[in-house]
Amino acid sequence: MSAAAAGRAASKAGQAVGRAATKANEAGGKKGSDNALNKFAKKDPELYILLTIMTGAFGMAGYHFGSSPESG
Questions:
Q1: Distances (CA, A) of 19 to 2, 6, 54
Q2: pLDDT tens per residue across span 13-66
Q3: Residues 49, 57: contact at Cβ < 8 Å?
Q4: Burial 30-46 (b: 16+ CB within 10 A, else e)
Q5: What's residue 7's pLDDT?
Q6: What angle is formed at CA 59 by the lines to CA 41 and CA 37, rounded to 5 degrees?
Q7: What angle do CA 12, 17, 10 make, to 5 degrees?
Q8: What pLDDT score does 54 carry?
């Protein structure tokens, strides 16, 4: 099989997967995921602030340790 034929086959497979995902999304709707997120946010909205702070802390630690591992 040539590279062009493999590319066409992969493209058709990707389009089929995309159509299936679109149909599943339309069938399921957005209410399920939004409902769970809103229910969680109503129970403890302070966790979003904690999540933001922790994400920043881990990001800064990753940058620090990843930027110059040989120094100090």
A1: 26, 20, 37
A2: 566 656 666 665 565 555 556 777 677 778 888 888 999 999 999 999 999 888
A3: no
A4: eeeeeeeeeeeeeeeee
A5: 60
A6: 15
A7: 30
A8: 95
Give whole-number Cα distances, 31 to 15, 28, 35, 65, in Å.
26, 8, 6, 41
User: Which pLDDT score is estimated for 39?
Assistant: 78
Apex 16 CA angle, 13 and 21, nearest 5: 125
Q: What's the chain's Rg over C-alpha atoms? A: 22
HEC string for 3-71: HHHHHHHHHHHHHHHHHHHHHHHHHHCCHHHHHHHHHHHHHCCHHHHHHHHHHHHHHHHHHHHHHCCCC
